[in-house]
Amino acid sequence: MSASLEKVTQTLKEVIDAPIASYFESCVHCGLCAEACLFYTETGDPKYTPIHKVEPLRRVYEQEYTLLGRLKKMVGLSRPITDEELDQWQELVYDSCTLCGRCSLICPVGNDITYMIRKFREGMAVSGHVPDGIRGATQRTVEIGGPMGLKWPAVANVLKKAEESTGLTIPVDQAGADYLVLLSSMEIVNYPEYIEALAKIFHKAGISFTLASDAFEATNAGIQIGASDIARVIVSRIVDAAERLKVKYVLSPECGHAYTAIRWEGPNLIGRPYQFEVVHVLEFLDGLRQKGALKMKDKFAEPLILHDPCQIVRRGGVLQAPEALIREVAENYIPVADQQKWNWCCGGGGGASAIHTDEAEALRAKAFGVKKRQIEAAGVKTMVTFCANCRIVMEEAIDHYEMDTKLLGLTELLAEHLED
Ligand code: SF4
Ligand code: SF4
User: Fold this and answer.
1) Ligand 2 centroid to 37 CA: how many Å?
2) Which domain holds residue 59?
3) Residues 165 and 307 grouped into a single domain
4) What is the per-residue pLDDT across 96-147, written as a single tens digit (0 to 9) for each?
5) Do 165 and 265 fall into the same domain?
6) Are residues 280 and 373 in the same domain?
7) Same domain, 254 and 209
8) Mapping DSSP to helix (H, G, I), strand (E, B) and coil, where does residue 128 land?
9) Domain endpoint, select from 129, 153, 174
10) Are 242 and 274 in contact (CB under 8 A)?
11) For labeling, which of 8, 79, 140, 387 is most exposed (least CB within 10 Å)?
């Protein structure tokens, strides 16, 4: 075997841990995971079957860890994985997987296929097989601070405008505040109204908050690319700022994977518990609602549906709050089939939206088919969500299909109808 082939095999071998080995052994090849994946349901192409997406990893597992595989390898009956194959496999591991977790939920033997894909991405990242868009976003996050290359002066400018428009103060680096507010670059650039909404809600509730000038970015490109060392650097920035400012809570924004990163993966990445609690913005808002501190002056009258972001709802466990909040503010909320833990992804999570090749964009538009049918079946012109990435991906798809659909953010909608 050439040095390069050996290196590829070794890299993939290193990501195979005990859960992955047991998942490969348990798979009964029922194919049910295909029906759970929107890339399969919307294209009908069997290559998008979730368990097939980790086939190179399965081959390495067989060749390296099973008796039959070792015998086949000895007599030259098995093919080693090549660099070229992994290059081709990028489409299946990144473009066509949003790490949405729907396949893991449906697997009858309990295989966490999403975890397998995440681990496979680790091997892909180490062996240099990552799409340029995701690689660029990761590099900008490490070197500059965020995936879009935003620096603090640009953020400060957005905060100043939000202060002017609301007439409220947005504190920065305020030690002793209750909440450290995190933002995603997509919100800062595309939906600054989220920041205004949050400022209004905090002021109305009389709860102190702050932003940190050296840790405003919530998103974690290290998680998306599959590089734990980078993910740790990004989480550590937030942890250092929160502990320096001695806040009680860190508020995760309307961003799916940011919540997974800081809430569920962060303590494992840094190897210790936090000295603060992580709360998703919808958990915070629902807490206010339950205490009677989120009263509406009126309600949004037009019929609307809700899009549940996978990383917050199915993967993140924020199951009840979104519907409770939407019912608080919407006169005519129409629940759709497959909501909460069975929701369908926007098609661009898990870093997929950072890949801008023609093929990846065409595939995302196709994957939006399931969401399009939900909107059409409900007969609504408004959809509400609570993830800036979902919102951008779906706005692009809505443009692509020339649909007459408006997308709103849930926090903004609540702030707009908040009692004066
Ligand atoms: S995690 Fe979601 S997108 Fe990825 S393979 Fe599973 S169902 Fe498909
Ligand atoms: S659903 Fe589970 S058992 Fe069935 S093919 Fe997929 S991974 Fe294998």
Assistant:
1) 12
2) 3-129
3) no
4) 999 999 999 999 999 999 999 999 999 998 888 888 888 887 778 777 777 7
5) yes
6) no
7) yes
8) coil
9) 129
10) yes
11) 79
| Domain stop point among 242, 269, 289 | 289
Q: Ligand 1 test: best mutation among 35, 39, 223, 315, most atoms within 8 Å of CB?
A: 39
pLDDT of residue 1: 52
Residues within 6 Å of ligand 2 by CB: 27-33, 51, 107, 109, 111, 113
Q: Whole-model pTM above 0.85?
A: yes
Query: How many domains in the chain?
Result: 3
CA 193 vs CA 145, 202, 322: distances in Å? 22, 14, 19
Contact 381, 260 (CB under 8 A): no
**pLDDT < 70 regions, the chain:** 1-3
Q: What is the pLDDT of residues 78-100, one digit of tens each?
A: 888 998 999 999 999 999 999 99
282 shares a domain with 142: yes
Question: Tokens in use for 295?
Answer: 């009263």
Contact 142, 225 (CB under 8 A): no
Q: Which residue has the least CA distance to atom 4 on ligand 2?
A: 30
User: How far is 235 from 265, CA to CA, in rounded Å?
Assistant: 9
